[in-house]
């Protein structure tokens, strides 16, 4: 998907169409989550500090993220993906690999499948998408990047090496700024420079990583598309507008995060055995603690109690800029049935009732008392999405 969050905002608010739009958090403490293509010429990019972005594009319109809207659009997009093949491997909310090998006989050549799929996304969801078609995942990813915005690039297997050759070496997976400098020092500046070298020379200079880079430079990538990869964790986190100090000030935020994690577990029909608490301090140092529960749970209150026990055991003091709660060790929500099955406990009944209320009236319709003040601070965003503006997905 092209500039996904920003494209959803422009679709839902026609006054934003054709204008530079930045989706991000706090103007001095947050980061850019997405930038429309109209904002790109000013140098605005995802993950850039918001303070830099608003200086580089002062005329841009900054909108807070609405993760509920993005999640809904993502589910609609993936439903269209799955209409052409069951082999869909998600990379994020807005990106996936599709293996259409078995669909060709019914739906036509891969390029035609991509064109029809993109047309349906544009017609039914009013969102732009780009596609890369290739015989391997690595080349398809690069082709889709080069096709943006709102285009597609088809790279035949026989032209793979020539397609990759002129591209900068930084396009190779695993090559960051530091390793790029090392490769440049060896006279390797393009992917073709690596592809033309003897693989033993590459390995002698770069070790086992060199062999992988040489294979990628030749378009060799045997990894299959893996559908329905299991989630490893479900979490929620908040970056505060002002640093907070003391457990009592952190408590309502951790409570809110735990309840959101519980709600997401129940929606996914999952339970968790491990609860993790994350704190980021004012100096950007990160601290994580986790505990294993006696039994798997999807109850936000139980997750909250576990998180608070972890917080109470932390001796370090200081100002905190972010807290996060996440659930790990995920498993199916269906417990083993017994001959004399126990009736659902009170928390199970309560959560089921709360979920029905949230589904009908929104996640902000009913809150615990300690979250009312937090709701007031962020009411408009929470009411629309049921989550923090800086939730992790």
What form results from the Cα inertia axes? Answer: globular
| CATH class (first level) name of the largest domain | Alpha Beta
Number of domains: 4
Strand content: 15-25%
Task: Show unreliable segments.
Answer: 337-341, 375-393
Task: Report the average pLDDT across residues.
Answer: 85
What order do the strands of the largest sheet run in, or round the barrel if closed?
Answer: 8-11-9-10
What does this structure look like?
By secondary structure, the chain is α+β, with helices and mostly antiparallel strands. The chain has four domains: 4-65, 3-Layer(aba) Sandwich (MutS, DNA mismatch repair protein, domain I), CATH 3.40.1170; 68-159, Alpha-Beta Plaits (2-Layer Sandwich), CATH 3.30.70.270; 161-217, Orthogonal Bundle (DNA polymerase, domain 1); 233-385, Dna Ligase, domain 1 (2-Layer Sandwich). The protein contains 16 helices and eleven strands. It has helices at residues 4-12, 50-56, 67-81, 104-107, 110-125, 137-147, 160-164, 177-185, 191-195, 199-206, 208-217, 247-267, 300-312, 346-361, 372-377, 379-385, and strands spanning 21-24, 32-35, 61-63, 88-92, 95-98, 131-133, 152-154, 233-244, 270-281, 286-297, 320-332. The radius of gyration is 24 Å and the shape is globular.
């Amino acid at each position: 998907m092209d500039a996904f969050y920003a494209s959803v905002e422009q679709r839902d608010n026609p006054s934003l169409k054709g204008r530079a739009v930045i989706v991000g958090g706090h103007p001095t403490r947050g980061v850019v989550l997405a930038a429309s293509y109209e904002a790109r010429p000013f140098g605005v990019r995802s993950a850039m500090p918001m303070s830099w972005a608003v200086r580089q594009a002062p005329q841009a319109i900054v909108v807070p993220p609405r993760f509920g809207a993005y999640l809904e659009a993502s589910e609609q997009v993936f439903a269209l993906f799955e209409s052409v093949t069951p082999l869909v491997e998600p990379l994020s909310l807005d990106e996936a690999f599709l293996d259409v090998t078995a669909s060709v006989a019914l739906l036509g050549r891969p390029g035609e499948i991509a064109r029809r799929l993109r047309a349906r996304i544009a017609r039914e969801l009013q969102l732009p998408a780009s596609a890369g078609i290739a015989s391997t995942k690595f080349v398809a990813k690069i082709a889709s990047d080069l096709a943006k915005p709102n285009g597609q690039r088809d790279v035949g297997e026989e032209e793979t090496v020539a397609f990759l050759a002129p591209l900068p070496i930084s396009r190779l997976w695993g090559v960051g700024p530091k390793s790029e400098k090392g490769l440049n020092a060896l006279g390797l500046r393009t992917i073709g420079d690596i592809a033309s070298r003897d693989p033993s020379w590459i390995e002698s200079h770069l070790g086992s990583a060199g062999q992988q880079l040489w294979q990628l430079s030749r378009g060799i990538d045997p990894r299959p598309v893996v559908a329905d990869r299991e989630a490893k964790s479900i979490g929620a986190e908040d970056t505060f507008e002002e640093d907070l100090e003391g457990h009592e000030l952190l408590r309502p935020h951790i409570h809110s995060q735990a309840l959101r994690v519980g709600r997401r577990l129940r929606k996914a029909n999952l339970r968790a055995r491990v609860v993790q608490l994350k704190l980021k301090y004012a100096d950007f140092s990160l601290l994580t603690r986790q505990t294993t529960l006696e039994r798997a749970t999807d109850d936000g209150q139980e997750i909250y109690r576990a998180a608070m026990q972890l917080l109470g055991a932390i001796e370090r003091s200081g100002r905190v800029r972010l807290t996060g709660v996440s659930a790990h060790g995920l498993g199916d929500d269906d417990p083993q049935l017994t001959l004399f099955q126990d009736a659902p406990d009170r928390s199970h009944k309560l959560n089921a009732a709360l979920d029905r209320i949230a589904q009908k009236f929104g996640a902000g319709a009913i809150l615990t008392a300690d979250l009312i003040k937090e709701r007031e601070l962020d009411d408009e965003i929470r009411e629309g999405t049921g989550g923090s503006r800086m939730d992790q997905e």
